[in-house]
Write a structure and sequence with these properties.
single chain; 348 residues; mainly alpha
Length: 348
């Protein structure tokens, strides 16, 4: 095998390997760039539409300004209901803990009692750490504000000059591979755009549905479990399962019949999301096997913690598209070599 025939494939593989490894070696820089890219993917169609009526510079500034205002308003609205409810949830957790331990099915089993104790202790510790980290976030507000400003600036220039940046990078490769590299970038960006928009849609729908259910059934901490269920959708398979278990456990402390209804509600909601909503929004474009998703989430969690679990699926999508591109190019090169040999034999 002559490596020269696969030069572009090798460069592509090494480039994306280095970009992905940046999350490990330069996490702050990598996350700023990645969040900027996600916001760019979300706003790019709107900027293109508005660009028909005004210069791209103005369209990018207007759409990004509107998005920033909406994001700040949404965060303020969520915080006004979520933070007080979450604080009350942490305060009331010892009472909830005691109610769960007093359930007959748990008291009659030493194994269940021990496992529930470990689970609740871990949950309490995680909740306190989350509450503490929220205060730390306010104390380090200046640094977070600087990061947010950098993200907005990077996003603005991606919206304004994103196509030129793609062209510039593609032209760094050999001339005959320009269209191949350019179309690879387009496929990756299109797949990520579909993933981001679909996950945000499912996240919002799930949060609204769970909040409505908890409110209508009189279950406490509706906003806490709504946010938990919505955010969990960004961790496919594992996230919704954990959120469903926690919501059902909360219902058990109120009434056993209500707990059964809540478990059925979560089961129907999860199946509806992943068999109706998710395929409708994404279709078969990603075509990722659940095993690949689960292993990717576990690996991402081991390497980068919670952020790694959120980023696992987008990174898997990128790797999948790069591998498919390299495989297609390899088949094409082998076909060309085979045809060349056949022509030489035919001429002889």
């Amino acid at each position: 095998m002559r490596l020269k025939n696969y030069r572009t494939s090798i460069i592509i593989a090494l480039t994306f390997a280095l970009l992905i490894s940046a999350f490990w070696f330069f996490p702050s820089l990598a996350f700023i760039c990645f969040i900027s890219l996600l916001i760019h993917l979300l706003l790019y169609p709107l900027v293109n539409w508005l660009n028909r009526k005004m210069p791209r510079f103005a369209a990018a500034a207007l759409i990004l300004g509107f998005f920033t205002a909406m994001a700040v308003g949404w965060l303020g609205l969520v915080s006004s209901t979520f933070v007080p409810t979450f604080t009350k949830f942490i305060t009331d957790f010892p009472d909830i803990n005691e109610k769960i331990r007093n359930l007959a099915i748990i008291q009659n089993s030493d194994f269940l009692s021990s496992e529930v104790d470990n689970f609740l202790s871990t949950l309490m510790k995680s909740g306190l750490e989350t509450l503490t980290s929220s205060f730390d976030m306010f104390l380090s507000f200046f640094n977070k504000f600087i990061d947010a400003v950098i993200i907005l600036f990077v996003t603005f220039y991606l919206l304004k000059d994103g196509r030129d940046i793609e062209n510039y990078i593609a032209r760094l490769f050999p001339h005959q591979d320009y269209f191949r590299v350019y179309h690879l970038f387009e496929r990756i960006l299109q797949a990520l755009r579909k993933y981001v928009t679909s996950q945000l849609t499912i996240c919002c729908l799930t949060g609204i549905i769970v909040f409505s259910y908890f409110t209508l059934r009189g279950l406490p901490y509706a906003s806490v479990f709504a946010v938990m269920s919505g955010v969990a959708e960004f961790i496919p398979v594992l996230g919704p399962t954990v959120a469903s278990v926690l919501g059902t456990i909360m219902a058990v402390t109120q009434d056993s019949w209500l707990a059964l209804q809540t478990a059925i509600f979560y089961l129907v909601l999860t199946q509806f999301n992943h068999n109706v909503i998710y395929p409708y929004l994404i279709g078969k474009s990603l075509n990722l096997h659940p095993i690949a998703i689960i292993l990717g989430i576990i690996l991402g969690g081991e390497l980068l913690g919670a952020p790694g679990m959120f980023l696992a699926v987008p990174i898997i999508v990128i790797c999948k598209l790069v591998i498919e591109d390299i495989y297609r190019d390899r088949l094409q090169v082998q076909s060309m070599i085979g045809e060349s040999r056949w022509l030489r034999r035919d001429q002889s």
